[in-house]
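Can you give me the bound-state structure? Components:
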Amino acid sequence: MAYLERIEGLVKDRAAWPKEDMSLVLLVLDGVGDVRHPDFGMQTPLERAETPNLDALALRSAMGRIMPVDYGITPGSGPAHLGLFGYDPREVEIGRGVLESLGLNMDLKFGDLAARCNFCTLEGGVITDRRAGRPATEESRKLCKLLQEKITGIEDVDVIIQPGMGHRFAVVFRGPGMEEGVCDTDPHENAEPLHEAVASHPGAEKAARIVDEFQSRALEVLKGREPMNAILVRGIAERPDIDSVTDRFGLNAGAIATYPMYRGLAKLVGMNVIETGTSIEDEFNTYRDTRKDYDYHFIHVKGTDEAGEDGDFDHKVNVIQSVDSRLGMILDQAPDVLAITGDHSTPCCMKLHSWHPVPLLLHSGRCDVSGGSRFTEHECTEKGTLGTFHAVHLISLMLANAALLDKYGA
Amino acid sequence: MAYLERIEGLVKDRAAWPKEDMSLVLLVLDGVGDVRHPDFGMQTPLERAETPNLDALALRSAMGRIMPVDYGITPGSGPAHLGLFGYDPREVEIGRGVLESLGLNMDLKFGDLAARCNFCTLEGGVITDRRAGRPATEESRKLCKLLQEKITGIEDVDVIIQPGMGHRFAVVFRGPGMEEGVCDTDPHENAEPLHEAVASHPGAEKAARIVDEFQSRALEVLKGREPMNAILVRGIAERPDIDSVTDRFGLNAGAIATYPMYRGLAKLVGMNVIETGTSIEDEFNTYRDTRKDYDYHFIHVKGTDEAGEDGDFDHKVNVIQSVDSRLGMILDQAPDVLAITGDHSTPCCMKLHSWHPVPLLLHSGRCDVSGGSRFTEHECTEKGTLGTFHAVHLISLMLANAALLDKYGA
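Here's the bound-state model for the whole set.
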């Protein structure tokens, strides 16, 4: 059933589009979903917030709830966004190294192998501190610079190093034949020696050799620099080889996000990352300014997730109200399809991502108006004519609402 | 993606559990689901019943509806329970012989082949009564005893016989190489001769030989004992080879049930069957007494199904009220996760199991409170933030609500 599971077979040629300046907008309020909990007055932040503009839009929209990955599954940001973009997160995996390097604003090309690394302390042949005494980011940054100066390549493979926070950094290996399938050199506990990089299949033997050589050279460079005298290489993964949204859905897509990781995720699926500022207002202005340049915009608002992770209910309410008060900036541009949802829930009572389905509002001139009067978790359930469905189907609904899909069969 | 369809890859190691004395409870009111029907005042038994304790719990719980197997599929007790336990009943099959022998309280080991049998009447080489004139259970019991005395084993295979009701009994064949794949010796109509046991594949040839020999010897033993002078062997099946709930979900599980079949089903998935009495009160006391011994309890209440099968609406209401009035016995033990549902519906107007989705109430400190005020079929639909979903996903939601699942992806 690939034909229907992947709807690309039905996407109309651009020549058959109903209009030229099509604008589909996916507005992601990261982690916006929440649950009613006695600690917070049995209301969710969306219920508590005053959202006159979302309310008015809800009256004219279809609503439902999105399950990010599957029942009971709490997604990381990678799988959660892939689903919204139309890639089944149960099929496409994004390795830790890839996500880390995207989060550090590194560019990833097909065939690249990315790893996240720790500085660590090695004494008498065993690890004594997997985090090297938690160095300041500045310390780490200096040593990354030194490593990069001394190690620019191994054999025919370029080595690209990027510092992160504290003891963490990322490495991208760029060269022919760097296949995924190399185990961590990190023993994952203290009092153990560094592991060798082992290939899990013959195709990954070159990659294992390069990673081992990288680790050996790093040890030479760091010799005597206790406590940061060694490194651990972890989560070695290649950029997933997936079609772009252009190939798959015929869309010329632009991404507006303030955090590198979300820009990176958008790049993975072939979106063009658009320069923007740091505020919601900046992001919405960027949409206005580039509305005609793209068929599809992904706009990412981070504040809701941060507030949820902090358990800061009032701040989550405030971020929602900030979005609401600026919603007109998007609506003024008359997008043909506007989907407002989250990538996952981040309930304030849990201070973590969760599995709970996320509210969805879908507005277009062809939507099945649900009859709800508020964009909340519970209206999206009780009135939600879209039901509760897997995130991967959202793109199909967006394309259908834009009249970009052909009829199936005669 | 077996990884997510079967969520075992995400189950946390016990060392990473948020607490030690975890208690997940699955309370199954067998056949509790019903439908609104004019013959019964257009109310379901759950709607008619006075359930102050369930109502109060509903106000603080997530609700939804469970589809036991699939749209329009009416399950037997086996598939219905497997689903609730986290085993997809569309993939795992339990043969009739296995279910019959479990229902007769027989122990089944891996590699055992179980069959259900009839006493029947053979005249002039053909079956004249497939039920041997429906003998009293006592008559049948005597002949089973005789058969067991005369036939204790065939070749290197033990033969274990257990009488059932009326003309029915069960046989377990225990020995090496007893593979599933033997057809019934029952011609399934009168005026036909007994069939030979035929192997459907070469691996089942030994089993076919043993079954044939069992039937021949039984005929010798029963010679002259008309009308019970022959037997039919049917539903020959082996114990399904499935992981235990411990292997699959990391749970140490105990089962509390008054009927052998449900205890047997629990044993199939590696639950420990706990001794209990015959009443709901006994069962709930058993939970209290063993709360600390298990991470997960399956508690089975049979009365709702019996009332449904009898079409006895008032009795079904009474059983529901009995459970409600004792619900505090469970709540007092503060289970971390409590799921209350049925294995299937047994509508009073049908007097049979049915395919109608079953109401579900899921309570935990992390649940998405649905805002319903009653645990009924219709509140579970209209307010149900969990939606209507396949039973096999219940275990994922229970584990998620107990914080026993890792995040998926970074």
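A couple of observations. Residues 14-94+242-401 of chain B form a domain with the Alkaline Phosphatase, subunit A fold (CATH 3.40.720.10). The interface with chain A takes residues 1, 3-5, 7, 10, 60, 365-371, 382-385, 387, 389, 393, 396-401, 405-410 of chain B (CB under 8 Å).
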